[in-house]
């Protein structure tokens, strides 16, 4: 078509004046541009029908996997931090480390009369807790625990203090949405202490403070005292046996767990999940969601519904005990503590 128009232009241009030739040239140019535009649009429609509209169309790919989010709680900063108790007046000594997402405390809460030191120290690369103390009297003589030197993340309902929190575990969070993985690498030096437990202390509440229907869920990863002594009947009742999927020293294992429950209708209740095979040192990673699902089964029929509670705090540390009037010496180290998306 372009050729025909151009030949017509040459024929008429030869018989007309200068101005006419310019007018015909403009007409021919407009027609040529229009023709090329039509051709381009046709090609574009064809490319769209084939799923390749130039460079703006991405080639379909397989669904991408969500990026793993991880928060390192320990190590956390390089500044030396030391929280120490030498008397009952210093029971609640506590300091924040790094970016403020972890609080450390010696917390010898059940030693009424004692001498010595209980301390938690962050040395810039690891958390170290040391007990070198002797006591003569407990506040609660029936509790097989003297204290819980520990690290804490979130709003601890006993301390009434909060740390900074961030994804993948921004707290408080409904228990049903708490599916982050908690990872820890540690070692225990029992010394001459009775290690009631080296454990996570995970708190689920309806709101600020503690009250009936709230839950303290403890995961005992290591202990030296037999469970029958640490969780005696009738104060504690057996709540069944379960299996949790975990990674121990990088290897996936099905961890057998025994559950013990104490229901308190006037205050919060406590659920213990204890590894049947205690781990004295190494790395352990498991999902909080798995623990919540075990708790759902263990609490069935008790009137406590963890699905209606919020996860507010996660603590980790050692509960220790021993005979009175004897110097007790034991310690632990946490080399790494992290939260990761599942």
From TrEMBL:
Keyword entries, A-Z: Membrane, Transmembrane, Transmembrane helix
The protein's GO terms of the molecular function aspect are: hydrolase activity, hydrolyzing O-glycosyl compounds
Signal peptide (residue range): none
Mind telling me which SUPFAM superfamilies this protein's record contains? Concanavalin A-like lectins/glucanases (SSF49899)
Sequence intervals crossing the membrane: 22-43
This chain belongs to the protein called Endo-1,4-beta-glucanase
Which species is the source of this protein? Thermoproteus uzoniensis (strain 768-20)
Give the classification, highest ranks: Archaea, Thermoproteota, Thermoprotei, Thermoproteales, Thermoproteaceae
């Amino acid at each position: 078509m372009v050729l025909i128009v151009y030949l017509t232009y040459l024929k008429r241009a030869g018989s007309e004046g200068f101005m006419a030739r310019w007018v015909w040239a403009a007409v021919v140019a407009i027609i040529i541009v229009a023709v090329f535009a039509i051709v381009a649009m046709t090609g574009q429609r064809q490319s769209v029908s084939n799923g390749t509209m130039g460079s703006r169309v991405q080639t379909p790919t397989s669904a991408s996997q969500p990026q793993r989010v991880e928060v390192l709680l320990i190590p956390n900063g390089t500044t030396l931090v030391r929280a120490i108790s030498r008397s009952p007046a210093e029971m609640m000594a506590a300091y924040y480390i790094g970016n403020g997402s972890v609080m450390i405390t010696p917390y010898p809460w059940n030693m009424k009369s004692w001498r010595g030191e209980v301390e938690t120290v962050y040395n810039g690369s690891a958390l170290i807790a040391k007990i070198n103390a002797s006591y003569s009297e407990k506040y609660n003589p029936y509790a097989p625990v003297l204290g819980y030197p520990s690290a804490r993340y979130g709003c601890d309902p006993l301390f009434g203090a909060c740390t900074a929190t961030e994804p993948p575990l921004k707290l408080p969070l409904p228990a049903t949405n708490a599916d982050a993985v908690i990872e820890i690498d540690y070692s225990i030096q029992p010394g001459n202490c009775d290690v009631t437990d080296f454990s996570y202390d995970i708190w689920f509440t309806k709101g600020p403070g503690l009250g009936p229907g709230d839950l303290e869920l403890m995961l005992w990863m290591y202990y030296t005292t037999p469970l029958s002594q640490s969780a005696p009947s009738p104060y504690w009742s057996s709540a069944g046996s379960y299996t949790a999927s975990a990674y121990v020293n990088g290897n996936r294992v099905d961890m057998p767990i025994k559950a013990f429950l104490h229901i308190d209708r006037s205050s919060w209740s406590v659920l213990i999940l204890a590894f049947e095979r205690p781990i004295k040192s190494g790395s352990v990673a498991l999902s909080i969601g798995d623990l919540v699902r075990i708790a759902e089964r263990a609490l069935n029929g008790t009137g406590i519904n963890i699905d209606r509670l919020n996860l507010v705090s996660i603590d980790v540390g050692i509960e220790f005990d021993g005979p009175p009037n004897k110097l007790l010496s034991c310690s632990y180290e946490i080399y790494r503590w992290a939260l990761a998306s599942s």
